[in-house]
Design a protein that fits this description.
With 178 residues, the protein is mainly alpha-helical. The protein has one domain (5-71, 80-159): Ferritin, core subunit, four-helix bundle (Ferritin, Up-down Bundle). It is built from 5 helices and no strands. The chain has helices at 5-34, 38-64, 86-111, 115-144, 150-159.
């Protein structure tokens, strides 16, 4: 069964949003790297890769459905920040926006009775719940540690989960495990 055209159009737009999120997280990582905050930098480098992989999962879905997946341009990320809190606040805002976009995609699939695409979006809905929770927690910590960002570094060293490896329930990524 082919995905509904309105879903395909919106998913192609979402691919651009995911690549833009990846670029924004890379800009945030570079900011923290420049501030010699390696754990915050590493956290956002990992987030950048994760967002890129989300785009590649969407691309693979379209390829598997014999649909085109043109790569859209992305908006330039914000590269300058007033303090160590601003990047995390921006990241949380971005995650909330992406959650709205993902839910809208699932809604379009449902409206179009495209149940395969709706099921595909369920993983992303679950992922966004985790992303918002994680970023909300980090924002609380960074706000408290604003005057001593090394406390945020300590938090990440202590609380960041060990890499559990790839999520076996995740959709496949275009290009394999890049």
């Amino acid at each position: 069964m082919m995905p509904a055209n309105p879903f395909v159009e919106r998913l192609n737009e979402q691919i651009g949003h995911e690549f833009a999120a990846s670029a924004q997280y890379l800009a945030i990582a570079l900011y923290y790297d420049d501030e010699t905050l390696p754990r915050l930098a590493a956290f956002f480098y990992a987030q950048a890769l994760e967002e890129r992989n989300h785009a590649l999962m969407m691309i693979q879905y379209l390829l598997d459905a014999d649909e085109r997946a043109p790569i859209p341009g992305v908006v330039e990320p914000i590269n300058e920040f007033d303090d160590v809190v601003a990047p995390v606040a921006l990241a949380l805002e971005q995650e909330r926006r992406v959650s709205d976009q993902i839910n809208e995609l699932a809604g379009i699939a449902r409206e179009e009775r495209d149940f395969t695409s709706e099921q595909f979006m369920q993983w992303f809905i679950k992922e966004q719940i985790e992303e918002i929770s994680s970023m909300s927690d980090l924002l609380k910590v960074v706000r408290r540690a604003k005057d001593n960002p090394l406390l945020a570094e300590e938090y990440l060293a202590r609380e960041a989960p060990a890499d559990a490896g790839p999520d076996p329930t995740a959709p496949p990524v275009a290009g394999g495990t890049l």
